[in-house]
Design brief:
By secondary structure, the chain is an all-beta fold. The protein has two helices and 28 strands.
Amino acid sequence: MAEERPGAWFGFGFCGFGQELGSGRGRQVHSPSPLRAGVDICRVSASWSYTAFVTRGGRLELSGSASGAAGRCKDAWASEGLLAVLRAGPGPEALLQVWAAESALRGEPLWAQNVVPEAEGEDDPAGEAQAGRLPLLPCARAYVSPRAPFYRPLAPELRARQLELGAEHALLLDAAGQVFSWGGGRHGQLGHGTLEAELEPRLLEALQGLVMAEVAAGGWHSVCVSETGDIYIWGWNESGQLALPTRNLAEDGETVAREATELNEDGSQVKRTGGAEDGAPAPFIAVQPFPALLDLPMGSDAVKASCGSRHTAVVTRELYTWGWGKYGQLGHEDTTSLDRPRRVEYFVDKQLQVKAVTCGPWNTYVYAVEKGKS
């Protein structure tokens, strides 16, 4: 078998609390920069003011407003209110510990519980590093909430495979590739065609019949990647994070004409164009309450996605980013915001193939490997 090509993690965007973003100094990094321990990192979870890194050897390191380190760590999930850590137990069980972010890894945790994992599932098919699987617990029947009660059970019939939390909403991907959402809906982030909240997980009917491979929750927007590499996106578009025309960027001259495909409640498709036939200005979209099918440049197929507070990142074999860019979190060597996907040229120039991406609210972390010579 061919030897695994070496890979490394890179970071860019907001680092106003001193969180690790490679070699950058000051409050922000505008272009991808290698992390000091990038080769050894296997999981990254970023909050607004600090970032958690887990190494292949099971060491957890915090960087930013929270600091410290711990061993025997299998996974970690950082949020502004708390840090959840999954540590290896003496047997098949794992120990879940929840800490207040300001006192993370010091003294006693706020809460701890032993969790029994289900049968080991497949990791990434090629064995590459990934973002952490928390907040979904290994038992797949509960998840960690940033607010008490920290342990939230899930209905067994949901058969959860992935769970992601936004600022006010949750997305769940089940074993059959169906998507469920619940929580706050005032920005259309639930995808049910309304701005109403949902107290319990509700099936995303607009995506029925389509098998999804991954979900991602932004602050107030949502993304999912289908098994065939299509991107569906919905929710708040204030900063162009849906790659749909937005008034804020049009006033800055950033919006261009484009076409997107929307799904009606009955699953039918409706074309929305970026400019009218008579040359009138493009219709601006502040809220998209239904999933919209997004075409990436050159018909690229997506394999992974992640969302920040108001920006979006998608991996093909390359990296595309768009949305809010004030702190350089889009990686385009500037602080421009975009309402259209744009390739991050750094990885192309360095002959690197992007394998994974995980966004913090205002920053972005990327795992990339050297491209083969073929």
